[in-house]
Write a structure and sequence with these properties.
The chain is mostly helical and 229 residues long. It is built from 12 helices and no strands. Helix 4 runs antiparallel to helix 9.
């Protein structure tokens, strides 16, 4: 029965309907389609794979670190990780996305479960003592609900892929069949990415995806603005 409960909670936290505002973002897809870089199913697949890999080597490392610090009751370590998220996100829109979604998730999580460390973190967010980024919120929530570290990782990568594929349905000529085929095929890479991310420390974080950073920068002045970033 406990395993059923954990699976249901994983589905809930990974659902695109979970109200953190994920539907408002596209991870730079608008600029990628506007400039013809992403134009069909194959180029979309490669774009999603690139962004999922970037998530695995950045936000996922932060979330796993936070998850482990929660288990050790290391609140200072959690706050250090929160500050680091803001430092490695190069574009203002990326930082805004993480902070906005992180705060919403923290607020929701505090309503759903009773966890003192999570409540302390939300109090510090409200008081301006810490930023309140999404990967830290995810790490704390999954730890508070006693979900596994691997479930946390899967939820993050699924969320990244789902945001982009959902945006693709509105940005380009592609069908639900195409997006589901892309997601299904990319799932096979998640295990490899998890084995990499779980061994990384905060100082190993790298965001080297220059094209993705360029697309985000172009979006700030781009004409195609269906989403906030």
């Amino acid at each position: 029965m406990e395993r059923i409960l954990n699976l249901v909670r994983l589905l809930q936290f990974s659902d695109s309907a979970f109200p953190t505002g994920a539907f408002s973002f596209s991870n730079g897809l608008e600029s990628a389609t506007e400039h013809g870089i992403v134009c069909d199913s194959e180029t979309l697949r490669e774009y999603v794979r690139t962004m999922a890999t970037q998530t695995a080597h950045t936000d996922a490392v932060i979330a796993i670190n936070t998850y482990r610090n929660h288990k050790k009751s290391d609140y200072e370590g959690i706050c250090r990780a929160d500050k680091m998220v803001v430092c490695y996100k190069l574009k203002e829109e990326s930082r805004a996305m993480s902070i906005r979604m992180g705060r919403k998730m923290a607020e929701l999580a505090c309503r759903l479960c009773s966890d003192m460390m999570l409540k302390r973190w939300l109090t510090d967010i409200t008081g301006g003592q810490t930023c309140g980024t999404l990967p830290v919120a995810q790490g704390l929530t999954f730890a508070a609900c006693d979900l596994s570290e691997s479930a946390l990782f899967c939820s993050q990568l699924y969320g990244t892929a789902n945001i982009i594929l959902g945006a693709a349905l509105r940005c380009m000529r592609i069908s639900h069949y195409d997006t589901q085929q892309i997601l299904f095929s990319l799932n096979t890479h998640f295990e490899t990415l998890y084995q990499e991310a779980r061994e990384m420390k905060l100082e190993n974080i790298n965001t080297f995806s220059p094209e993705a950073d360029i697309f985000t920068a172009l979006h700030e002045k781009g004409k195609k603005r269906l989403f906030m970033n």
